[in-house]
Amino acid sequence: MTSRLFQFAAPQAFFPIAGKLIPWFAVLAGVLALAGLYVAFFIAPTDHQQGEAYRIIFIHVPAAWVSMFLYLVMAGWAGLGLALNTRLSGMMASAIAPTGAMFTFLALWSGALWGKPTWGTYWVWDARLTSELVLLFLYLGFMALKAAIPDPVRADRAGAILALLGVVNVPIIYFSVQWWNTLHQGASVSLTRAPSMAATMLLGMLLMAFAAWMYSFATAFSRVRAIILERERDAEWVRLQRAAA
Amino acid sequence: MKPRHQRMIAIAAGVALIAIAAALVLNAFQGNVVFFFSPSQVAAKEAPLDRTFRVGGMVEQGSLKRRADGLTVDFVVTDTAKTIPVVYSGILPDLFKEGKGVVAQGKLGPDGAFHASEVLAKHDENYMPPEAAHALSKAEADRAAKSVISPGGTR
After folding, report:
1. Do B35 and A50 touch (CB under 8 A)?
2. Domains of chain A, each with CATH number or no CATH
3. Residue B151 C-alpha, separation from nearest chain A C-alpha, in angstroms
4. Which tens digits make up the pLDDT trace of A3-36?
5. Which of B109, B112, B115, B63 is nearest to B89 (CA)?
6. A55: left (phi over 0), alpha (psi -120 to 50) or beta
7. Is residue A243 within a helix (H) or strand (E), and if so which, with residue range?
8. In B, which residues are within 8 Å of A172 by CB distance?
9. A7 in contact with chain B, both atoms CB, cutoff 8 A
């Protein structure tokens, strides 16, 4: 079983699988996003406190969730590469980083646009907002560090150490609203208790979160295919592929 | 033990060490990470009383008063244990309401009132349609009314 899983760790084996899966993930992302936006704008009720402004939640919360989740996945791949010296791991980490950075930026930006009408300010230096900004810098730092080292093996190793260093920030982001007084409100949805929001609001948010997740798969896979081709350009199978194309 | 197992252990140990270091640093900074102080903390002099700080809590019901100049407002921030009067002149955020969360930034004046330079609304994590919120507050009011009557023994 493990040996069969390890087969796909070879870039050569993973390349065609990723290629086949991309359209499925892309279609799923599109369908889920359409359904989510429909629920968000036409089915979910107005909020008793914030009126229509709360609807930014349908972008903001999925983006923030996925930004944290992708960091864990990225650091997981990077750590795996560091431990096992597998070639694909570092490439996967590199492929995930830009999507994670994009979602982090989206969470910060939509949060700022939400903060002005509700709190009365675009930005405050509270623990939640600051730690999410640190996450953006971690993503950008990871990408910059890898880009700065020409040798891919050394770049993977340096990037992996940075990614693993940054992992501590993810629980800090998540629990910041419980640990400290923050302007940001606590979690509406958690695994340990019933969500404190109307069912249709929750449905819209979950649909959007799954859409963001599928989108991440599609973009990360298409990016990793480009990285594989670039790094393995001298390999026999890539030459054959190029000759066939 | 294979080299890759050694590396795995080294990585796990490294991440654990970083986590412990981060926990210690955050614990040391505990007071500084806090975005606002509650009225109880201010009363206990835990807040930096001679400097600018933020105070957070609920706007006490019925405490909001607008002065004659039409711009300055007085209200009381409470955490249900202690209260602190706040003076602020400026535009209040839309969500600023009695009985709702608020975070004010400013300094404690010699008159014992908190002179705010910025007032932010802090909303909670509950999202529901207005009808549900209305039903909820009505049920709460009914319960409160009942608890006031029952000790009198009208039933």
Report:
1. no
2. 17-244 (1.20.120)
3. 33
4. 666 677 788 889 999 999 999 999 999 999 999 9
5. B115
6. alpha
7. helix A236-244
8. 22, 26
9. no
